[in-house]
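Narrative of activities, Objective 1.

The group set out to show that a structural description can be obtained from nothing but a protein's sequence at a throughput compatible with the screening campaign. Below is one input-output pair from the validation batch, recorded exactly as produced.
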Amino acid sequence: MFENLQDRLSNSLRTIAGKAKLTEDNIKDTLREVRKALLEADVALPVVKAFIEQVKTRAVGQEVSKALNPGQQFLKIVESEMIAVMGEANESLNLAAKPPAVILMAGLQGAGKTTSVAKLAKFLKEREKKRVVVVSADVYRPAAIKQLETLAGEVGVEFFPSTADQKPVDIAENAITHARKQFADVVIVDTAGRLHVDDELMDEIKGLHAAVEPVETLFVIDAMIGQDAVNTAKAFNDALPLTGVILTKADGDARGGAALSVRHITGKPIKFLGMGEKVEALEPFHPDRVASRILGMGDLLSLIEEAERKIDKKKAEKLVKKVQKGKKFDLEDLREQLQQMNNMGGMGAMLEKLPGMGNMAQMVEQANMGKEFKKMDAIICSMTPAERRNPDILNGSRKRRITQGSGTQIQDLNRLLKQHKQMAKMMKKMKGGGMAKMMRGLGGMMGGGGGMPPGGMPPGGFPGGGLPPGFK
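Output recorded for this entry:
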């Protein structure tokens, strides 16, 4: 979502980052570029004006002129002001109430409310260990109740049934009474999508809010709504005492302006980002991490958290022990590594979160490495266990059988075997010298791997010979 904004901002800030001295003129030029980038990203005009004004005031002040590296200091100011615009830190849900805590979801038609209810229920159940009941008070869209029932079954939370001929207030109150009897911790109420110009439906949600007294009233907004995010957010904020925002469709090609505008206009924090169609695609919104990624500084914390959740620790430990004992790294191990990387969203998604690796992530995307990895996986799956453990036994007829079974070419198989050999060498090095040696050898593994530049990593590896910035 922030790609466009990231490209524009990093280009405009690069010109100033190396300057030994900042003057009124070069600050003015850079700020003009920043203003253009923000407006192009659909950030609301009042937000852009306030942001630029704040940066300007701080940039021409003492903190920059006295800094050892004024260019970097300026970048730091832009980052901290961007964090201030989006909210200082991640604000979690406040569920400190007598159970069941009620969460009311409001928003426009088509913003993704019903899906967000299921995502939030899964998040609370798995990460907060809460017992959740979901209910639909959307009596206007016939399929809405059925949709929520299906999603609730998928995420494994209780669905409280309702019908289109009931009143929304009655549905919500019955669900809360039922949840209390079942000792549930949280009730999430899905409401009908409404237009902010529809007074009748706005009055209805006000009545619903007054009746159920939710601890959290979350406004679900589509990231692709652009400039209109401001009017929509304002109308809902005037009608309801909102406590937070869920920004959906953040994985789309929207320009990201909504994320920067909504907080400033409503004064309410963005609590979650919806990052796709799947029910697990909901992430807490961390303004500092998002600002860091927009400015091309990476997001190591998110990468570490994601790794802790998604990487199979037992398999990883098994491989480490195997390597330490000096045992051979076979094709089964390689396949497991590819699967672990896939669980993390692929190589591009991982590189994007490493500091200074944004361009590298784009190169990986363009080289279509995901397709290459799938091909490698298919080839390994077409082998017998004996062939995976000892690729040296592969003769002409075995190779033909494998390529026919996986729908690939002989040269694909040969390339995989070459890459596996290089990785096996790297693993041997790791036995003696650890991570730094492995990173230096990583270039060899990617060489000729389907469109990436020879060596796979930036020319000469990473600055400092081996590890990415911050990994020394």
